[in-house]
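#structure-requests
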Amino acid sequence: MFYRLGIATYGYAHNFLDNGNQNSGQLQFYLPFNRRFEFRVDIPVAVSNRGAMGKDYETNFGDFTLVPRVILSETQNVTQSFNVAFRMPTGDTSNLNGVAAITPTYEFWTNWWKGLVLRGGAG
């Protein structure tokens, strides 16, 4: 079963690909419509790096992503879902954004033993 959730994350990579430091900030919202269908919304509020040019640091908005998610099956211990991420080119190309993509993924999460939760997927 899906649930409402909002997450704010910050990421830092030191000397990423020998091209200086990289900072990122993202808001992620899970918006269920019913027990089997929801939208995940990824809003990259800040991407800061040297990008493709490798000169000065640029800080811009990243690529907005909308992800419809459908639960395929659900038991007490295992849940499986199918997702399709629609990445929209809203970011700046100087930060290696501005890319449109459609990415299908399969995800699962399990709770087989005393609170040990395992998550995984492929896409």
